[in-house]
Amino acid sequence: MTDFNTLGNASDPYSKQRYDWKAIAKYYRRRPLIVIWRTITVSWMLGSFALALLFDHLFGRTEKNQDRRAVRLRQILSQLGPTFIKVGQALSTRPDLIKPSFLDELIKLQDQLPPFSNLVAREIIYNDLDRVPEEIFSYFSKEPVAAASLGQVYKARLYSGEMLKSLRQTS
């Protein structure tokens, strides 16, 4: 079993359960490699997608590859995380701006997201409640029953017998 004491980080500005932009800025100012790596990752993924669209346009393959590109955009936004998923969800409500094939894929970001890791879920519980799930719940489902951009749902039963269904993602 994982030792969740080693997972939490006291210097993590997100562990305080409140938004503190100064603490977040200080945290990342001391970790430039994290910022650089995230910038490279986002730039690479979105840049390669933009290049693929450009090549499709230049070689007259826009219509032929449109469905494939739409799927890839949804995948990229999902991989980049909650902020990008929210952007995709917002765009999915704008049929006046988005082509139908892209709209169909972005709509999937509303209710067809992959779950995040069970280890992350257990870490969130530990960080929020200072206990592993087995100390709180008589039953905690091994897999989530639903996933969304900012959280996911597990079935759980308190030792008192009350059923719970909720878990948020903070990272």
Topology:
Blueprint: H1 21-29, H2 32-58, H3 62-80, H4 82-91, H5 100-111, H6 118-129, H7 133-136, E1 137-140, E2 146-147, E3 152-153, E4 155-158, E5 163-165
Antiparallel strand pairs: 1-4, 2-3, 4-5
Helix pairs in contact: 2-3, 3-4, 3-5, 4-5
Fold and architecture overview:
This protein is mainly α and 171 residues long. The protein has helices at 21-29, 32-58, 62-80, 82-91, 100-111, 118-129, 133-136, and strands at 137-140, 146-147, 152-153, 155-158, 163-165. It has a 3-stranded antiparallel sheet. The longest helix is centred in the first third of the chain and has 27 residues, at 32-58. Residues 1-8 have low confidence and may be disordered.
Note the main attributes of this structure.
mainly alpha, disordered N terminus, 171 residues, 5 strands, single chain, three-stranded antiparallel β-sheet
Radius of gyration: 20 Å
Q: What ranges have pLDDT less than 50 throughout 5 or more consecutive residues?
A: 1-8
Our count of helices gives 7
Strand content: 5-15%
- What is the β-strand count? 5
Overall pLDDT: 85
Helix-and-strand structural type:
mainly alpha
What shape does the CA trace take? globular
Report how far apart the termini are: 22 Å
User: How would a crystallographer describe the biggest sheet?
Assistant: 3 strands, antiparallel
